[in-house]
Amino acid sequence: MTETTPTDPASTGPAPTGPAPTAPAPTRPAAEVRIRPARPDEAAALAELAEATFALACPPHTSADAIAAFLTRVLAPANFEAFLADPDRLLLVAETGAGTLTGYTMLVFGEPHDADAAGAIRIRPTAELSKCYVRAEAHGSGTAAALMAATLDAARERGAAGSWLGVNQENVRALRFYGKHGFEQVGIKRFLVGERYEDDYVLERALQSREP
Description:
Blueprint: E1 34-37, H1 43-53, H2 64-74, H3 77-85, E2 89-95, E3 101-109, H4 115-120, E4 126-134, H5 143-157, E5 162-168, H6 172-180, E6 184-193, E7 196-206
Parallel strand pairs: 4-5
Antiparallel strand pairs: 1-2, 2-3, 3-4, 5-7, 6-7
Helix pairs in contact: 1-3
């Protein structure tokens, strides 16, 4: 399951009738946010960021105990130390001018370990967008879009021809965001949180051209 929040949620349904709606307030610019590779000494900061953002990706029925167990098992400082040392992974962070980490992504290069994902994706060599999280207070700032663009560029530069991800089927905002950035549904898989398997869509996009 991968999460992010769309900066411009897509609308659905027929065109509205009657008076034109009031234009939405402009989002805060992302120019003050810098995207860079995570440093080897940032495992604890990344774990704190994961603790602040992971629940945003979970469906409403996910219990606090299940979220806590996942954070301990998968997103603790020791996990991030291993991620940062793994040559087949790349972590990028969004950092404000004040030095606060507001979001992060993680790419995993190579064949998917998940059998359902491996059978669903069509483009190889591939890179999994395994993590894509932004703090709630940064939603609408353009941070998620900036992270996505930099992450896809990094996957492309590393030689990936495609990128894939898993996203919870109930995460409508994330699905809209990924669709806006060129991802299409190609399959389904399961994702374990606590003791319950959640249903994910497998999404994929080609990387031959720059991110739209």
